[in-house]
């Protein structure tokens, strides 16, 4: 039997994933996720869209500086200034890729770009040549390829390959394709484009019809050798193909695929948890591979079968995708070195001794309240600690909440706002409502609360609660997170974190908005 060929995994959690409303990440968060993706052994990490804002530029630069084993990629519209920004941001990378794109569907060319097909073709070729000034590794995407005319698509792809694109990515931008047809599209392109053998064919599928993984796999069956995907299927609107689904489908059904990835599948669940805790997007319990129920057997008959012979109802092993029994890793007697070693094993590195000391102090505080500390606790604690580090204008000083049967709950809060301590007191329909109202008395954020959710980080009533608060103001959505063994404190922290994000001035370009 011949060795399976390599299927490249291009992770776009930090770019398309970040385009999910409310999922924006700061530089440190992106670096943490990038390190986890490197450990997962993805081939390419799309770290962001450097032209979007100075913050996005710096985040791509920081990821480029710390990743050694994966290629770091920056997205650029087919515009000189975007490509130059991407080239500059990636200058420190061990292996850099520029991913440039322009729309090729009639509706996008006419209505969004207001450009003729000939101009689009010219600009695509020009962009690829310009990107080659910075790196040999250039990827081109004809945006909305799923709704583009096949003859024009062939012309554009042939021309960009001749101009030096080493990867051509076929995006189903609006999630309109269905598997049989999308597979045929990839086959036809590979057959009709004369220089197709000089580029890797890639696919980038959105999940608007719930078909992103199926479409990606159909493309792989028809010769695509790169799949663009995200952890937990995060991404614009209904998201992108989920990395964990694509990787595990190909690995589990090797009888149907003549290729495989280099992914270390045991890192899938830790990576999924990290992305969920940083973005505040919970994973639904019945989500394939990474959902809490993915390997849980409720019905007695299933449990009986699994106990007798695992394969009766399980097609993958939980431990192969990184589900481990909750392990007690540290306790209140653990010292600084043990804490530092565990952080290292989890891929968490602090940039200074002060940050490590602050995290260790929080760990000790937590260990006083909760005597068994699990990996998930440490992840939540570090996410929570990094919230304080980002120059937040509002900080929680103290919170007292009274809640009693038959009485209206009352919250009394002290915040430090731009260094000044201010007190707020409010009644509410419940203790969380009272807490948020007390914060609002001080902050007056003028936002609408869109989501409030609490998740237990581990099991047991002494578990930390991880709270996500989503606020909206004038169409802008932000997510705030907070973790604590006291869920009212976790809630206050999450609300304050969201308010801090709302207060930050924010000018950021969307890559797929028209700007030519
Ligand atoms: O969905 C899409 O078309 C994209 C491109 C930028 C590749 O995200
Ligand atoms: Zn996309």
Topology:
Layout: E1 5-6, E2 8-11, H1 27-40, E3 44-48, H2 54-66, E4 71-77, H3 80-89, E5 96-103, H4 106-113, H5 117-132, E6 138-143, H6 150-163, E7 167-172, H7 179-192, E8 200-205, H8 212-221, E9 226-229, H9 243-252, E10 259-260, H10 268-279, H11 300-308, E11 328-330, H12 336-345, H13 353-369, E12 373-374, H14 375-389, E13 394-402, E14 410-417, E15 420-427, H15 431-443, E16 448-456, E17 465-473, E18 476-484, H16 487-503
Parallel strand pairs: 1-10, 2-3, 2-9, 3-4, 4-5, 5-6, 6-7, 7-8, 8-9
Antiparallel strand pairs: 11-12, 13-14, 14-15, 16-17, 17-18
Please tell me about this protein's structure.
- The chain is an alpha/beta fold and 516 residues long.
- The chain folds into 3 domains: 5-279, Aldolase class I (TIM Barrel, Alpha-Beta Barrel); 336-387; 390-503, Alpha-isopropylmalate synthase LeuA, regulatory domain (Double Stranded RNA Binding Domain).
- The chain has 16 helices and 18 strands.
- The chain has helices at residues 27-40, 54-66, 80-89, 106-113, 117-132, 150-163, 179-192, 212-221, 243-252, 268-279, 300-308, 336-345, 353-369, 375-389, 431-443, 487-503, and strands at 5-6, 8-11, 44-48, 71-77, 96-103, 138-143, 167-172, 200-205, 226-229, 259-260, 328-330, 373-374, 394-402, 410-417, 420-427, 448-456, 465-473, 476-484.
- It has an 8-stranded parallel β-barrel with strand order 2-3-4-5-6-7-8-9, surrounded by 8 helices. A 3-stranded antiparallel β-sheet has the order 13-14-15.
- Helix 5 packs parallel to helix 6.
- The mean pLDDT is 91.
- It binds 3-methyl-2-oxobutanoic acid (KIV) and zinc ion.
- Zinc ion binds next to loops.
